[in-house]
Specification:
Blueprint: E1 3-6, H1 21-35, H2 41-51, H3 65-75, H4 83-95, E2 103-106
Parallel strand pairs: 1-2
Helix pairs in contact: 2-3, 2-4
Length: 114
């Protein structure tokens, strides 16, 4: 398994597949229409929140799952989704080719938070 060292977000630019944020957003819009039925309502909420964390490098998110879950919880006034739902969404999205996940480590090679 390949581990990526987290230095800064710029490190991940070589993995991007989109020319711009507009290009990313257009693709996401089409994918959501095509694959919406594969996800439950809670999983779609998780996916849409993950999508909001990709603006700096279009299509790349380095946000921790707990950060995303906290954002969902805040927006839903304490009625967020659980980690298992988020992980299920990731598995489904990977299976249909919507996203890929790369494991990361810190620059001192210690494991980063998930």
């Amino acid at each position: 398994m390949e581990f990526l060292v987290i230095d800064n977000i710029e490190t991940f630019k070589k993995y991007r597949q989109f020319k711009s944020l507009k290009d990313f957003n257009n693709n996401i819009e089409h994918w959501l229409i095509e694959y919406k039925q594969h996800f439950t309502t809670s999983e779609r909420i998780a996916l849409k929140c993950l999508i909001r964390y990709v603006a700096k490098v279009p299509g790349i998110s380095t946000a921790k799952i707990n950060t995303i879950l906290a954002a969902i919880d805040d927006k839903a006034n304490g009625y967020g989704i659980n980690r298992a739902t988020f992980k299920r969404m990731l598995c489904k999205a990977k299976k249909i080719g919507l996203l890929t996940v790369k494991e990361t480590v810190r620059s001192n090679m210690s494991q980063s938070n998930k």
